[in-house]
Structure formats: structure tokens, C-alpha cells
């Protein structure tokens, strides 16, 4: 099968990593895969896995808007050579170009949906493009959702069009090995609470800081907070951390080359998001046996944590509830440690990305067969 994977750019994000991992898996099983990025690589971008053919919208680096006309024309030509076009994300100019190019080339288009499209559009899509985004997603030949919650929300608006669920998965063995290699923390060090994600309102790191401050007032043991990731809210979060917790309690190291070296040694990984698509970092933490606490936000954390069997679920945006969960865990860490350990044996599919890639490919193959 000839597959064109289209991306706006190669910026470092969980969504882009998932798309590239699946593209690489398809390539390794014999498919002819081409990744087309509208923008050339920039410092800090994800390196494209070796073996994947990558092309760009323009022959020289340009800003996204400047590259768009050439990108659409080049995407149409590559789409005409493919059996199916895959958009790596559910929003962005890459998705609009993917759907337009596929339609012009008379090819089916499959959109990988990794976050709630309505919330994602409100957070990241310019107002002028939201209607176009909604229309493209509604009429796409197929959408592949990374959680059942996303699929259920989309199915109604798509009016019977192909809507598939392929749960995300992480490289469990690799992540577990990385966690084992992580250096041990000093005896008597404060409890380490880790958050990870884009420094933006959607990830709720402001709620995490409030909960840590409240937990300290409830008598929790000493804590330090590390939030991995980068984003526009960095300065505001740093200032908030000093105001609520004092200097030196919370750190924001940005993107790190080996996040598992920190997550794997944490006393708890906390997902404080206002909404999610899946919650990939929860699966990554479970792979290394790190206890997890998450808001039961839509959608993903409940599915990853198996209704609370693999970690603690707290009502959405319930700061006092999150504070209480932190106090309970740090006072008696045994239950959540045991819950995280059970995930590896009781949910093996969560740690088998090759299975997810094969299921996604099967959905694409059905789509191609139906169009012939």
C-alpha cells in the first residue's frame, strides 16, 4: 500500500511522535510510505526516523504561510501517487492541506484524531479556520481516533462515515529499561511530583501548582515539582510557582532528551489536564512503574488507567480532590505503586505500539479496498 502522511511541521509533540512511529511501522512491514511536511525542520523538531522518506512543501525553508500554496500543489502531486492520504493530526493547516489534496487527487483521506477537535480548535486554530477545520473533519473519508471517548464524540457529527478507534500504545520494554537506568534520588530528598506536556492552559499545570500548595497545607511530606515541556505559559507558571510554593520548589526544565530519567524516578506522575485525547504520558509512566494520578477529564485518562485500576482518578479540575490524592499517596504509596505495576501484566496492548500500527493499517487497507 502507498501511504502519504501529511504534517504541518515536525514540531516536538506527542501527536507527531505517534504519527511518525506508525508511519515507520508501516514502512517496516513493506508499505511505501512518504512523509510530507509543509515546513522544513527547525531546531528542537523531532528527527524523522531513519528509513522514512521525507519530502517538504518547498525546496528551501519558508514560513508555513509562505509555503502553503506550493505545499498544496506538491501535496496534490504526492497524493496522486498514493493509495491513501493520512493527516497526522485533527487540526492545523496540515490537515486542511491533506483533505484538500486528497479530494483533488481523488484519493481517500484518513485523519488521525489525537485530541478533541472542538476543544483543540478553540485552543490552537485561528477563528477564520475553525469552520474549515470542522467541515474537513466531518467529511473526511475516515477518522482514526486514539480513544473510544473521542470516537464516540465524533461518530454523531460524521453521520455514519467511517469512524475507527485504534488505542494509543507506548514502547513498554524500552521505557521500562530507561526507567531502570535512571539514577537513584538522594536519600531523604523531597517527594518528586512530575507533570509533562505543552505549557498551555489545556494541560492544567496551574491546577497542579494550586493542588501542591493545598496539599502542603494539609500536612503532605515535602515535595518538589518538575514540569517537563515548553510553551507560551512558561513565564506565568514560573511566577505562579514562586508565589504559591516559594522559590526552588518547582522547576520547568523544558524539553529533555530523556524524560523517562525523570518520570521513572518520580513518586507520582500527575496529569492535571482540562482535557486530553488519550494521555500518552500516563502510559509512558505506567511502563516504568511510576504511580499515576489524573483528572478524569475527557477523554483518555479513565481509559488508560482502566477506570482507576492502574492509578488514581480525580474529578475534573477538582483541586482539593487532587491535593487529597497527593496527600493520600505520599502518606501511603503502596496502593498506587501496586496499581502501576499491575498495568504491565493486565493491559499488555497498552505497551504494544506495533499492534496499534497494525490495527491502523488494517483500517487504511479497508478504506483503500472499499474505494476500488
Automatic annotation (TrEMBL):
Keywords: Glycosyltransferase, Transferase. Residues 184-341 form the Glycosyl transferase family domain. Residues 13-167 form the Glycosyltransferase subfamily 4-like N-terminal domain. InterPro entries: Glyco_trans_1 (IPR001296), Glyco_trans_4-like_N (IPR028098), Glycosyltransferase_grp1 (IPR050194). Its EC number is 2.4.-.-. One of its GO terms (molecular function) is glycosyltransferase activity. Pfam families: Glyco_trans_4_4, Glycos_transf_1. This is Glycosyltransferase. It comes from Klenkia terrae. The lineage of its organism: Bacteria, Bacillati, Actinomycetota, Actinomycetes, Geodermatophilales.
Amino acid at each position: 500500500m502507498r501511504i502519504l502522511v501529511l504534517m504541518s511541521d515536525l514540531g516536538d509533540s506527542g501527536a507527531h511522535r505517534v504519527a511518525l512511529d506508525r508511519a515507520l511501522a508501516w514502512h517496516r512491514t513493506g508499505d511505501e510510505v512518504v512523509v510530507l511536511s509543509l515546513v522544513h525542520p527547525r531546531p528542537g523538531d523531532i528527527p524523522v526516523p531513519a528509513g522514512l522518506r521525507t519530502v517538504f512543501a518547498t525546496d528551501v525553508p519558508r514560513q508555513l504561510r509562505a509555503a502553503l500554496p506550493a505545499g498544496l500543489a506538491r501535496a496534490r502531486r504526492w497524493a496522486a501517487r498514493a493509495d491513501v492520504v493520512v493527516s497526522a493530526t485533527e487540526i492545523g493547516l496540515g490537515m486542511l492541506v491533506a483533505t484538500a489534496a486528497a479530494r483533488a487527487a481523488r484519493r481517500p483521506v484518513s485523519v488521525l484524531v489525537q485530541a478533541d477537535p472542538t476543544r483543540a480548535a478553540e485552543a490552537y486554530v485561528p477563528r477564520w479556520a475553525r469552520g474549515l477545520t470542522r467541515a474537513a473533519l466531518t467529511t473526511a473519508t475516515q477518522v482514526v481516533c486514539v480513544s473510544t471517548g473521542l470516537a464516540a464524540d465524533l461518530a454523531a457529527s460524521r453521520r455514519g462515515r467511517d469512524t475507527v478507534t485504534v488505542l494509543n500504545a507506548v514502547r513498554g520494554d524500552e521505557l521500562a529499561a530507561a526507567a531502570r537506568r535512571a539514577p537513584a534520588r538522594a536519600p531523604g530528598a523531597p517527594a518528586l511530583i512530575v507533570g509533562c506536556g505543552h505549557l498551555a492552559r489545556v494541560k492544567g499545570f496551574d491546577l497542579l501548582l494550586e493542588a501542591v500548595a493545598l496539599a502542603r497545607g494539609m500536612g503532605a511530606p515535602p515535595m518538589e515539582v518538575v514540569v517537563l515541556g515548553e510553551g507560551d505559559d512558561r513565564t506565568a507558571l514560573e511566577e505562579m510557582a514562586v508565589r504559591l510554593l516559594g522559590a526552588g520548589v518547582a522547576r520547568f526544565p523544558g524539553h529533555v532528551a530523556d524524560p523517562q530519567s525523570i518520570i521513572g524516578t518520580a513518586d507520582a506522575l500527575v496529569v492535571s489536564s482540562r482535557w486530553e485525547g488519550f494521555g500518552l504520558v500516563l502510559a509512558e509512566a505506567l511502563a516504568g512503574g511510576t504511580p499515576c494520578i489524573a483528572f478524569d477529564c475527557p477523554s483518555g485518562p479513565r481509559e488508560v488507567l482502566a477506570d482507576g485500576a492502574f492509578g488514581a482518578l480525580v474529578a475534573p479540575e477538582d483541586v482539593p480532590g487532587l491535593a487529597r490524592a497527593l496527600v493520600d499517596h505520599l502518606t501511603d504509596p503502596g496502593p498506587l505503586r501496586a496499581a502501576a505495576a499491575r498495568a504491565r501484566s493486565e493491559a499488555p496492548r497498552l505497551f504494544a505500539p506495533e499492534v496499534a500500527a497494525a490495527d491502523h493499517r488494517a483500517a487504511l487497507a479497508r478504506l483503500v479496498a472499499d474505494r476500488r
